[in-house]
Amino acid sequence: MARKAAHPYGPSTVTVKGRDIRLRTLGFVLLAGLAIWFIAANTESVTIRLWIPTVTLPLWSVLTVTILVGMALGLLAARRSSRR
């Protein structure tokens, strides 16, 4: 099977205070900051129906679990696609 050829140049970077930072890292930090701000701003309790039981939880805990599950699924999908 043919392997993907590497680009002759490195990943896109931006220089911040004399250090090269990858744009992907910068985007990740920005999105993580926005997610933390969104979670911190939503602290009221919500009622969630889980098929049969109904639970009341703080919204920040529901959002935290949701983002962690999404990150885990994203990592699994990325790992599977990199093996192909």
Automatic annotation (TrEMBL):
Pfam families: LapA_dom
Transmembrane segments: 21-39, 59-78
Keywords for this protein: Cell membrane, Membrane, Transmembrane, Transmembrane helix
UniProt cross-references to InterPro entries, sorted A to Z: LapA_dom (IPR010445)
UniProt domain Lipopolysaccharide assembly protein A: residue ranges: 42-78
Protein name per UniProt: LapA family protein
Organism: Streptomyces incanus
